[in-house]
Amino acid sequence: MTQGARLQAILPAWTADLLVGDLVASQFQRFQYNQQGVTDLLNSFGVSVSWTLDGPSDGIAQVFGAQSPGAVDPYPTAIQWALFAPGSWLFVDSGVLELGIVRDSVLNATNSYQIFGESWENAAGIGVESLWITSTVCASGIVSAPVAPAGCQS
Fold this sequence. Notes:
The chain has 154 residues and is an alpha+beta fold. The protein has a domain at 7-86 and 127-136. Helix content is 17%, strand content 34%.
């Protein structure tokens, strides 16, 4: 990839709120960012982000359940997200089977119908490398103390 090339990230939608909450709890620029500001910040680092409401079918749950009465459910402590070069993945459409409206004597008696359709879809990776990353997170606003880089004397 050339220097300055952009990357694409796919993150759970709630991650934007988690990052805003972390920035608000921090020491600097506390009220400078909102959800759009987080997207703009990532863009400034060369990362185009897509926020998704879906989660992986295996691994760490990324979708919130229903909120129950009482304390607000906490954010998950881990994020699963993807990072890749744009154009690394193709959508493969292998067709659809659409039977349309299905009726029979039982359905007709209740003035009901059923619809049946199925599609065959997949994703094809054509890029060099894509990353599926699990990051541990805690929206506390705390940053680590600066450390001397390896090989440098302080």
